[in-house]
């Protein structure tokens, strides 16, 4: 007779296997039921060469498994690090708000950094907090998998979804109508750069993107929604000055907190949602003006 301990272990494994099978089944059902509808056009493509740095708008880009790429520019390919004898810490604009003002002009042989509050330089001194900016390795050697939250079983994540120095995943999709809606509630309007999105899609009402399960851009590029994007204190940092504008997060907490699922609503009460975290299903070239299609999610497609 099996011991109770062993029985519990087997039961646990059975539940895990069943959950994995259910997730796989739902994904295959989605692929069979996909109905693409036109939702708008690409209004802007933005690459952030430095994690937490200033974005660079481009007219065309390639959607790769690591994010947007245009010539020598690759999204979040650089990161500012604080090196001590004990450890190396990746810095962000929540820790050092002035990072949000730094732009990077990158060629095959050089990186020139600039900010509206200082002169251009080949290195960048952020006082005693950060001493220099460095690049680590070739993207192809990185196996950073998209990071799913522990608080909820988002079934859309796959272990083949990759990222570089992104916090969660390789793509963030938003819409200008959603930003316009937010700005009607703020005393001081903000720009999309403050939300650090890569692909801005115009043509639908505010927050229509909440219901997109998949996005197709042009003839080939397909992105899969992983989850809504939670907002943290970094969206309070203005990229033109590096100063914090606390009302942004405060206002969003009043109306961008979906009540369901209940477990996530508690987290979203502190981190309201704006935009979609997405991963690449099919690579391709995309450009400003390209037609964008979406598959709208169904109730059983958990987000």
What report would you give on this structure?
The structure is a single chain. The protein is of the alpha+beta class. The chain has a single domain, classed as M1 Pyruvate Kinase, Domain 3. The strands form five sheets. A seven-stranded mixed β-barrel has the order 1-15-14-18-17-16-20. It has helices at residues 4-33, 176-183, 247-252, 262-268, and strands at 37-47, 56-58, 60-64, 67-70, 73-74, 79-83, 88-90, 103-106, 111-115, 118-121, 133-134, 144-145, 162-163, 171-174, 199-202, 212-217, 221-230, 273-282, 284-287, 291-296. The N and C termini lie far apart (42 Å). It is built from four helices and 20 strands.
Task: Write the SSE topology.
Layout (H helix, E strand, L loop, with lengths): L3 H30 L3 E11 L8 E3 L1 E5 L2 E4 L2 E2 L4 E5 L4 E3 L12 E4 L4 E5 L2 E4 L11 E2 L9 E2 L16 E2 L7 E4 L1 H8 L15 E4 L9 E6 L3 E10 L16 H6 L9 H7 L4 E10 L1 E4 L3 E6 L7
Parallel strand pairs: 14-15
Antiparallel strand pairs: 1-2, 1-15, 1-20, 3-4, 3-19, 4-5, 6-7, 6-11, 8-9, 9-10, 12-13, 14-18, 16-17, 16-20, 17-18
